Amino acid sequence: MIFKDGWWRHTDELEGMIYERPDDRNDVRIEFRHRLGRNRDLAVGKQTLRVYFRNMGANDQAFIDAFADSFDENEPVIDDLLPLSAEVTGNKRNMIEATYDIDVDAHEDFFDAYVAALQEAFVDLVVENEELIATIDELYDESIEQVYGVSAGSR
Question: Which residues of 109-128 are buried (b: 16+ CB within 10 A; e: fewer)?
Answer without folding.
Answer: eeeebbebbbebbeebbbee
